[in-house]
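Annual report, structural modelling task.

Input specification for the zinc ion complex:
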Amino acid sequence: MDPQPSRRSTADPSRRRFLPSWWIVIPALVGVAALGLWALLQDPAQELRYGVFKKKLAARAVRSVKVGPTELRGELAAADPKGRPVKFRVSRVGMETDPELAKLLDQNVPEGAYEAASGPSAAETILLPAALMGGVLGVLLYALKRSGGMGSALAFSKSRHRVYQKDERRLSFEDVAGNPEAVGELREVVEFLRTPEKFHAIGGRIPKGVLLVGPPGTGKTLLAKAVAGEAGVPFFSLSGSDFVEMFVGVGAARVRSLFAQAEAKAPCLVFIDELDALGKARGSGGPGNHDERDQTLNQLLVQMDGFDANRGIIVIAATNRPETLDAALVRPGRFDRQVVIDRPDLVGREDILKVHARRVSLDDGINLRQIAAMTSGFVGADLANLVNEAALLAARKGKPRVSHAEFEEGVERVIAGPEKRQRVIRADERLRIAYHEAGHALVARSLPGTDPVHKVSILGRGNGALGYTMYRPEDDRFLHTRAWLENTVCSLLGGTIAEEIVLGDVSDGCSSDLQRATQIARRMVAEFGMSPALGRVSYQNEGRSPFLPGGGSGDYAWSEQTAREIDLEVRRVLEQAQAATRQILNDRRAALEEITRVLTERDTIDATELQDVLDRHPYEKA
Ligand code: NHX
Ligand code: ZN
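The model returned the following structure:
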């Protein structure tokens, strides 16, 4: 089980708009119009081939005929089974040159039922389609007007940014916890927005753009809003992905429009979320609309160079992938200032919990420091989620206040989703799951320095795991020794190897364990210089984000010879770990059986119960 919670996006629900996107409305309207036209043109007459029609004429099976400009229409003499007249039509192609036709018509269609119609009426050819088009256009214009008074139907390029209104609750730095360094760096920006004249007089160069860099969920948007709130200036907010549109030029026009409006409101703050969506290095690979994105990015650069910073416009952008940004974006005069917003540390998490705890009533005995300690790796969004989950759990149990137990359960929910008790598991699979998890736990507890096992469970979880072993480090860990890495690989392999030893065969459930073990081994070899065979050398490419899960792994550009050596070394590391793991589990088979027994009886085993079992079966190295 991964002790790290899954990263959630920073999407701010308040930015989600109730207006439909034009790229849905327009095709929908066109579709409706087309459907109408189709229904209009649809007619119940059956299409007859010319030859068939002539045969029917000759057989006097035609009751009436009307000659139109492009086709003949009429009714057959025989009715359909329900007694309704059968209508038909025949294309006139080829008829003109047929001398027989007129004769056949004269002879075989009853008098008066055959008329050579004049051309189509004006209503049919012009008025009807015109009315239809007019209707569609009218609906379109109406919809456009309603969607925020865009005035003209051609205003697609208008920015759909959101401006924070004066009456909205202003956020302040009080609302931002867990990252005092970032707040400190942004205070200067606030000062400038408050009194641009002061800075102007001194002649100092004002930052135009500030880049907030950090993993998702760390509160970059919140921080930008707080800057605007502290300074008391309007806040224009837009996401980088909003700029990238279907048509070339639309995004660029949006950028222009955004800055035009910002200039009218200066001093103000423009916030661009997900800058990487539009700021990717120009011409870089990957799918998507390149011309459009490049144009949009160029326009952003032009605008940033164009506005006079002394007027009091500051652009704050957020990204979790600074390494993918176009180099031009981070040059002086653009986003030349970077503020890193990393995952909060222990104290930071406690402070964030304090902010969120204001909204719920907590048990008196609750110790937020303790909760912060068990949420290593959580970001602000995860902590907000945790407080919410805990409050919901307390409410469900009918408790007036949230106590420690709900937070314990909340942490598990945030990491792995709710328990899935209702799933029916075959008895043999349940036993396999129990051996697998017992294997993880036992190996982890047998090796020094690994993260302590907090809880083992064979109850499925909402994230799809059939069972899990939860580790809980006492403190944030910033460095991992080689022994820690090797031992962690062993405990990841412990699940599968327990299955192999006890049940004689392995299962396909191991994929995520194996993936993580392999990733650690690969980084040991290629990034941390921990392989004697390859030496203390980094085979890591530069320029990757330190925030990405898994850090810099995955991209190695070396000779094929070296690539092969890395692969072989990774395999050697894993094989060595497997041998060590097999040794432990064979030596401690009795403990493995006992942990498995407890698990099958009680579904879960916590740290103290596990310790009891281990005390009864001390490790005597063979
Ligand atoms: C399958 N599921 O794919 C079945 C349906 C080996 C006892 N054949 O290693 O549940 O294999 O120690 C987080 C972490 C799904 C979420 C791992 C969601 C793995 C998990 C796939 C236990 N515990 N594997 C484990 C497991 C599986 C899966 C996860 C996840 C099993 C194993 C799932
Ligand atoms: Zn496992």
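The mean pLDDT is 81.
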